[in-house]
Structure formats: C-alpha cells, structure tokens
Amino acid sequence: MYKYTLPFLFLFLITHGQESNKDTTIIIKSYSERWELDKTEKKGTFRLISYKPIYLTFGRISSNPNKQPKSENPDYSASEKLPYNNTEAKFQLSFKTKVAQDLFWGKGDIWLAYTQKAHWQIYNTKISRAFRELNYEPELIFKYPMRFNFMGGQFKSIGFTLNHQSNGKNLPLSRSWNRIIFHTGFEINNWIITVNPWIRLADDEDENPDITKYIGNGELNVAYTYNNHQFYSLITHPFSTFKGGSIQLNYIFPIKGHLRGHMQLFEGYGETIIDYNHKQTTLGIGISFTDW
C-alpha cells in the first residue's frame, strides 16, 4: 500500500501548495553566505546549520539493484544474492558547525560537518522494510577566503577537508575509506562551481581496493539558480581512465513556503559506498528543505 500512497501524497503536496500559496519566494544563499567568507557574514562558532542538501525521496527506482555486493578483496564480497527491490526510499541529512574562526591572518575558519545518506527498502516486506544502506560521513573542513577575478566571475575560497565515509556494516558488506579533499569555490552570476580533487589515504585492511578506479579522484559540483528554481549536478571521475565515474542531476522547485520538490537522476558508479564498483541508473522524486 505504501508503494502507491507516498507518490500520491507527493503529488497532493505539489498541487495543494501551488494553489493555496502564491508566495513561494525562497532565498538561496550565495557561496560566500554559505561559508561566511566575508566579515559582514560572520556569525560566530557552534551554530548548527545546513551543509549539503537535505531531502527525502519517496520513490527511487534503480535500473540495476546491487543484490550481491562484491569487492576486489574477497573477504568483503557477498556469497549470495539479497532480495532487494528496485524501488526504495532515500533521504539525506547534512549539518555543519564552525568550531574556530579568524585563523591565519584573521580569515580562515574550521568547520565540523556530518552527512548521513540512507537507502530504505520501505516497500520490501520480504526483508521487513529494512535499510539497505546507510552511509556516514563526518568531516573536518578548513576554509580560507580569497577574491580572484576570472572571466567575469570570482574564485571565493580555497581549503581542504579530512573526510571519512563508511557504512558501519560487518563482514562481508563493510565499506569505508578516508580522504584529504581539496576544494575551491567559483561564483559567477547565478552559477556556483566547486572543484574537489582528493587523495585517498592508505588503509591497512582495505575493504574496497579499487574504489578510486570506479568512483574517481575528484568531484565537480555545478549549481545554477533561476528565480525559485535550482539545478545542480555532482560529477565524479577517475583522472587516469575514461571508465568509471558518475553524474547526479538534481532539479529543485518550490511547492509551498520553504518546502520544495526534488527530482534526482543518477548514472554511473558509487551512488552509495557499497555500490562503489556497481553501475546503475536511478531516478527519484521527493521533497527538499531550504538551507538555513
């Protein structure tokens, strides 16, 4: 019953919201505002605010569900297929807080961040609607503002991140990796572009040896805002080969007040860490929440 009820609930929210509330003005933060790069935007430390997009996808359909996760390390390969559906729910929660401000000539900031992504087999009664995959991603982030004009736009910051990602599972489905992620942000008109190359740190007990060959060595994040509508893409790719990588396309549109609709299309490897070497195409629709 839930399989059909939730999509209809989403359609009701869209139609009801558009008819009953004409004022759907949403203030979308600039890159500088998101990271408090200017002196006038500094708001102090230990305030919990949004980080990556926060959304709930009622229905996510996969062209090729990963029913038997495998790794190049044989100890981390499933021995039999799991009864997963190709339709599930997905949600992402993400927060950050600034823990130190005005370092290094009074400009650099240090942030702590946490993102959790969940894939929930809510329509699968055979496995009691269990969570298929949970990804945990704590980060320590250093941001340093800059103003470098380039082709009509401006580079806004440089920095690096100490990043850990894992799924918290036991053998043979455990997956994890650690990275140093470098980043720079560029803004021009209604476009925000961030470039995030990374270095994977060595792991004595490697659960996913070839993860960079599939997911890649970096991420390009491109976002465009038009009125109250937002489009953003996440693109990953290994620098050494044409095989691998992924693209995620997102469209966010107003429903009512600060509630927004969210459509997401994914193609490639590594939608979750358990799927790092598994290729699929997925399409999801749900709701997204305004940054604060």
Protein model, in words:
The protein has 292 residues and is mainly beta. It has a single domain (2-289), classed as Phospholipase A1 (Outer membrane phospholipase (ompla), Chain C, Beta Barrel), CATH 2.40.230.10. Helices cover 11% and strands 51% of the residues. The chain has a 12-stranded antiparallel β-barrel with strand order 2-3-4-5-6-7-8-9-10-11-12-13. Strand 7 (176-188) and strand 8 (191-200) form a beta hairpin. The protein is globular and about 55 Å long.
Low-confidence stretches: 1-5, 7-23
Adjacency order of strands in the biggest sheet:
2-3-4-5-6-7-8-9-10-11-12-13
At the third CATH level, what is the topology name? Outer membrane phospholipase (ompla), Chain C
CATH class: Mainly Beta
Oligomer: single chain
Tell me the CATH superfamily.
Phospholipase A1
Specify the CATH architecture: Beta Barrel
What is the H-and-E element order?
HHEEEHEEEEEHEEEEE
Mean pLDDT: 91
Compute the number of structural domains. Answer: 1
SS-derived structural category = mainly beta
If you compute it from the alpha carbons, what radius of gyration comes out, rounded to the nearest whole angstrom?
20 Å
The helicity comes to 10-25%
What spatial form do the alpha-carbon principal axes imply? globular
Proportion of residues in extended strands: over 45%
Number of helices: 4
Query: What is the distance, rounded to the nearest whole angstrom, between the alpha carbons of the first and last residues?
Result: 34 Å
